[in-house]
Amino acid sequence: MLLISDFDIGMSAEIIRSFSANDVEIFSELSGDVNPVHLDSDYAQNSIFGARIVHGALASSIFSTIFANTLPGPGCIYFKSENKFLKPIYLNESVTFKVIITDVLRDKKRIIFKTVAIVRDQESILGTAEIFIP
Question: How far apart are CA 27 and CA 23, in angstroms?
Answer without folding.
Answer: 6
